[in-house]
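Severity: low
Component: inverse-folding endpoint
Summary: output formatting inconsistent between runs
Steps to reproduce: submit the following structure tokens with default settings.
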């Protein structure tokens, strides 16, 4: 091939060379900014990397108040006792309080405004967590936890079309490892006591695909 003719073809070509495409962020319904990737982020569940919290270390951790029930005492006939609850019910109450606390904490730092970040109350076994744990890390009658969902979205061509704006490690750093909540389990002459729950706070990173 004539070298001068070949260079002339290159000089008159109007097709630009594309170096790359930007990473898709924000609106999950838009495919206008997509990135073909050979490997997706691995699915993982990890505990928050901030120190554990309790009402003693953070006043924003809620402290529940028992709800009275119209059960008259045998002595007076008009007094009220507090309802007795099981440790399983106490764990559920405690986890709801942790969920409210984590939601408020992340909202205050504008971390829930990012697409793909959502706080959930769910069951989570210790063996599902990828963080190294000690034997007595949690105290809960049933395996409940507050988990922040962190998801990536891909289209049919395995192109990344949406992801959270906040980095995964940054989100972990804004979450405590555990939250301790004390729940009253009964009051009155017949029964009284408290149940202290130590519940995990984790982030679940995963990917979804358009079908």
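Observed output (run 2 of 3):
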């Amino acid at each position: 091939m004539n070298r001068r003719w070949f260079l002339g073809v290159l000089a008159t070509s109007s097709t630009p060379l594309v170096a790359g495409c930007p990473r898709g962020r924000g609106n999950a319904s838009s495919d206008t900014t997509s990135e073909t990737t050979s490997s997706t982020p691995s699915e993982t569940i990890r505990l928050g990397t901030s120190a554990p919290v309790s009402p003693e270390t953070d006043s924003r951790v809620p402290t529940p108040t028992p709800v009275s029930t119209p059960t008259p005492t045998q002595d007076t006939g008009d007094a009220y006792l507090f309802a007795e609850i099981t440790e399983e019910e106490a764990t559920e109450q405690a986890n709801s309080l942790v969920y409210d606390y984590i939601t408020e904490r992340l909202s205050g730092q504008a971390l829930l405004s990012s697409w793909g970040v959502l706080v959930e109350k769910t069951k989570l076994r210790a063996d599902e967590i990828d963080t190294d744990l000690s034997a007595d890390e949690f105290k809960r009658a049933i395996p409940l936890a507050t988990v922040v969902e962190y998801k990536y979205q891909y289209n049919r061509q395995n192109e990344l079309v949406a992801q959270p704006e906040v980095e995964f490690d940054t989100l972990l750093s804004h979450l405590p490892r555990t939250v301790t909540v004390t729940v009253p389990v009964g009051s009155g002459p017949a029964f009284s006591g408290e149940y202290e729950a130590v519940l995990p706070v984790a982030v679940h990173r995963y990917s979804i695909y358009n079908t």
